Amino acid sequence: MSTNATTLPLPSSALPPIRINRKPLWIALLLVLAGALYLNQTVSWRQGALWVVGALLGVTLYHASFGFTQAWRVFVSDRRGAGLRAQMLMLAAGVLLFFPFLAAGTLFGQPVSGFVSPPGVSVLLGAFLFGIGMQLGGGCASGTLFAVGGGNTRMVVTLLFFIVGSVIATANFGWWSNLPALAPTSLIKTWGLAPALVINLAVFALIAWAATALEKRRHGHVISFASRTARPASLLQGPWPLIWGGVALVALNFATLALAGRPWGITSAFALWGAKTLDAFGGDVATWAYWAKQPSLAAPLRQDVTTVMDIGLMLGALAAASAAGKFAPVWKVPVRSLAGAVIGGLLLGYGSRLAFGCNIGAYFSGILSGSLHAWLWLPAAFAGSALGVRLRPAFGLAVEKTPAASSC
């Protein structure tokens, strides 16, 4: 595998010094500390720890720019496969860590279970819509949160309509759930631990090989961005190589499993925030089939693990952006770009509910859970993303030909 010279770090002497955004950095750090103490006192020490894990996820995502949207976009548009290979490496490390404990059903004496959902028509359609939304909205679920925390004002619009789309999907979720589907299927339980590991690892290797072969066919060589960054890597100020980000995301997802008894998820909180807001304004949300069996609707948000981690993630990204001297919100956004954020956000929210999750809950954590539905989600979302890439110019959005340094 050859390495393009542009991936080599520039000498420190050739780079301007980083000017830390001190005020937002201190605000973020104080809020992370205050939130952890509050949750420790009012809920449990585990909830406080999950808040911190969420913040560390935000730091990781921001500093490593580890996302799915931009990696898929660059592969579709220019056959650059570094991001796809990094994802396969992350998933391989993840299944090696997760599968044995999920097969045993316990971790450090606590019962644990994965995200195993019914594979069916709603997953295929929901993932396809989500893939389009990724490209128009400008980010996946994790990318939307870390971009909002990092000061991207356009992504605030995407997040708002992500929430709206999520609530709309819960209103008619009963109809979608009646479409043809198989029973929830765990590959770990169906095949056994060793066969599930071997087959998953083989598929990851096949996808990485295919990405490499297609990149070589297009360009004659492969560019690796996995272990190098444009400027010297810094743990506290970034940037991080992709391999750092992938390893850290697996470790933090595993910490989530140990603390919460289930893997990392994101988008269920968006539906909950929207439903609670609608309920506060007189909407009869509790009678909807989706919410009738959801105790979280009546419970305080501080008790919802996903909410706690999502907010922590945004604060962690704020701290990372400030430490890197990149927290500088720009409030002027072109109208066509805003339209893309609105449509993309709606598709992201609606699609994630139909597909039982997003790029984190259905793809990353779904595959680490050994769920068959995750393997339906991946090709359907990738196909939707490919269509979304072709739609981006209509909304004034760029289609990169080389990996960007700070995009999901």
Summarize the model shown.
The chain has 408 residues and is mainly α. It is built from 17 helices and two strands. Helix 4 runs antiparallel to helix 10 (193-219) and helix 5 (121-137) packs parallel to helix 17.
General description of the model:
The structure is a single chain. The protein has 408 residues and is mainly alpha-helical. It contains 17 helices and two strands. The protein has helices at residues 22-42, 45-64, 69-78, 82-104, 121-137, 141-149, 153-171, 173-177, 187-191, 193-219, 242-260, 268-280, 289-292, 305-323, 335-354, 359-368, 372-391; strands spanning 106-107, 110-111. It has a two-stranded antiparallel ribbon with strand order 1-2. The longest helix is centred in the middle third of the chain and has 27 residues, at 193-219. The radius of gyration is 20 Å and the shape is globular. The two termini are 24 Å apart. Mean pLDDT is 91; it is low at 1-10 and 403-408.
Explain the layout of strands and helices:
Elements lengths: L21 H21 L2 H20 L4 H10 L3 H23 L1 E2 L2 E2 L9 H17 L3 H9 L3 H19 L1 H5 L9 H5 L1 H27 L22 H19 L7 H13 L8 H4 L12 H19 L11 H20 L4 H10 L3 H20 L17
Antiparallel strand pairs: 1-2
Helix pairs in contact: 1-2, 1-14, 2-6, 2-11, 2-14, 3-17, 4-10, 4-11, 5-15, 5-17, 6-7, 6-14, 7-12, 7-15, 16-17
The shape, in one word, is globular
Question: Which stretches are low in confidence, meaning pLDDT under 50 for 5 or more residues running?
Answer: 1-10, 403-408
Q: Please give the alpha-carbon distance between the first and last residues.
A: 24 Å
Number of helices: 17
> How many extended strands?
2
Quaternary structure classification: single chain
The strands making up the biggest β-sheet line up spatially as: 1-2
Largest β-sheet summary: 2 strands, antiparallel
Fraction of residues in β-strands:
under 5%
Written as H for each helix and E for each strand, in order along the chain, the element string is HHHHEEHHHHHHHHHHHHH
Helical fraction? 55-70%
- Secondary structural class: mainly alpha
Mean pLDDT: 91
